[in-house]
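TICKET #2291
ISSUE: user wants both folds in one file
ATTACHMENT 1:
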Amino acid sequence: MTTPTTAMVLAAGLGTRMRPLTDDRPKALVEVGGRALIDHVLDRLAEAGVTTAVVNVHWFADRLQAHLAGRTTPRVVISDEREALLETGGGLKKARPLLGDDPVFVANIDSVWIDRGDAIADLARLWDPTKMDACLLLARREGSIGFEGDGDFFLAEDGRLTFRGDAPSAPFAYMGLHITGPDYADGGPAGPFSLSPLWRASAAAGRLYGCVLDGDWMHVGDPQARDEAEARLARNTPSAHPGESRDPVLK
């Protein structure tokens, strides 16, 4: 399948677990390794061929929007949630008119990773809308930074996902990036709602798939995880950062 060229980037959260780092900025502008979290994500998407990123904003929305105005690649379109925070499903539903009609990436802003392969290309190759509602990028639970849960999914040989359910643990965690149709959340309720119930319905129907990152995943959800991620990145060779202008306030 063709790699999506549009992405929905979920950047409207309050970042309460990241306090005090989010007392004066959105979580998306917390820096890891000298770069804002949202720029780590947008750079990955740009490298994969994404040309348009729809970014939802809420907490310190003006500051985030001003920062994003400094980017040239990908082109950024704002989905404004200043009046009400809509969660993942509600955010995707509100942004629907901005996303076009083709499949899209949907990305969180709290994932940073070191790729030993080409995870986004692997995800795009697996994606098949004739048999999938969504295709998720996963990480192995062991060895991940900042993830302390019992895992989210079991993965079949054909890539089909099942939720952990009553099992004490599962080997894979969702790492914050997936492909879906732009209308996937259209049937959700008015107001805020999560994508999780939609994924559970898709999994029950055999239409939720995924593939596993060959690399190191850092879930940057709190200040300790941010520090651990910075230490891990410091041991890795720096990469190029296309199309972005640093926010001078954050230098």
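ATTACHMENT 2:
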Amino acid sequence: MAQHHWPTWGNENVNKLLKSQRDLYRYINDQTLRMANEGLTRDEIAAQFKLPPSLATMWANRGYYGSVSHDVKATYVLYLGWFDGNPATLDELPQEDTAKKYVEYMGGTDSILQKAKTDYDQGNYRWVA
């Protein structure tokens, strides 16, 4: 538990840390399944998942080597598998082939770079990446 965390000393502090970790993983598990039962997809759940302040403010629960969104996606896949419900993702092209088709469909590299620069300037970093 909390392998990538600074060492914790003292019985009271260790108990507090372990309880926090227990509560964190339970919350991620239960809320991921609740949202999946409401029909949300893996990525939709990860995008809107928020920890309550009681868990989010604990130092060992912060994203460092991973993030809560990664944990949510892993929990979803554990219970429901990798299929996202979209038939088009059942037999996708490999990434390299897909990338070549995207470039072709978007009008070539010059067109893409121009659009990417505009999006970057607007702060749309996740999309540009």
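RESOLUTION: both attachments delivered.
EXTRA DETAIL ON ATTACHMENT 2: The two ends are 32 Å apart (CA to CA).
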